[in-house]
Amino acid sequence: MIFISLIFIVITIINKCQAEVYAIPAESQFYFEKFDDAPALFGPSLADGAIRGLLIDADPPSGCNASLRPPPTVYNDIGKWILLVPRHTEKENCSFEQKIRNAQAANYSAVIVYNIRVANTSVIKSTKSHCQIYQKSTR
Question: What is the annotated signal peptide range for this record (predicted)?
């Protein structure tokens, strides 16, 4: 499992429909990279305020497996773990809903589903059932 301990994520809320995602290396307060994103059309709104936490790559990488590895038990100053999961992999693919439900079951604070190809900018679609999705998510 790739553990990204040097990257902080800050999701700054613009309104209920948009968010800004910034990745900031832990050793620098001045360098960051901005990523375009769109909120999921299900689950809680991102308008509650900023979410800040440490990023961790999904293991297994697709995020489709119910045996998704939970966040590390090591101390985290920020206290939140944010799962970083690709939209699809060559070996396995599933719905956004399934990825987010698996992350929620594994105790992640938030989920970022990212596109492998930059040209693919479709939004996270609605789910068949909004019931029991408490995870904030963005893509």
Answer: 1-19
